[in-house]
Amino acid sequence: MPNFEYRKVQLAGVWDHTRSMLLGPKTYENVKGYQVVTPLVRFDGGSTVLVNRGFVSSEALKNLNVLTKETGPVQLVGLLRASQAQNTFTPENQPEKGEWYWADVPAMAEYAGGEARGVQPVYIEAIFGEQ
């Protein structure tokens, strides 16, 4: 099986904000926050993939609209990524509490609806500034 990690892909679809996940906590430029992972229901066949939409500060999360502001069709470019390995210091994910500490792609896909909703265990990190 070929390794597709870091392969650039183009996607189009609509966000399923009801299944967004916060991955973290993380820090970026000394600011505390989370990575926002949202399922994207693709137009070409309706399958769904997980997209890491990037970092949002804990302060910005107080305004819940930051996670749901895009409601129409979106197009994006991203990189295919694999699950992250859990290390000794990383807690177990607790999906039932909405707590995701590391990217366990199969578990995240199941949380987003799994096979029944057409969610594929595919994880993409969005690249900003490209069309």
What would you say this structure looks like, in words?
With 131 residues, the protein is mainly β. The chain has one domain (8-127). The chain is 8% helix and 42% strand. It has two helices and six strands, in the order ββββαβαβ. It has a five-stranded mixed beta barrel with strand order 1-3-4-6-5. The longest helix has 7 residues, at 105-111. The radius of gyration is 14 Å and the shape is globular. The mean pLDDT is 89.
- Report low-confidence residues grouped into runs of 5 or more: none
Provide a count of the helices: 2
How many domain modules? 1
Q: Could you tell me the mean pLDDT?
A: 89
Amount of helix: under 10%
Distance between the termini: 29 Å
Keywords:
131 residues, 5-stranded mixed β-barrel, globular, 2 helices, mainly beta
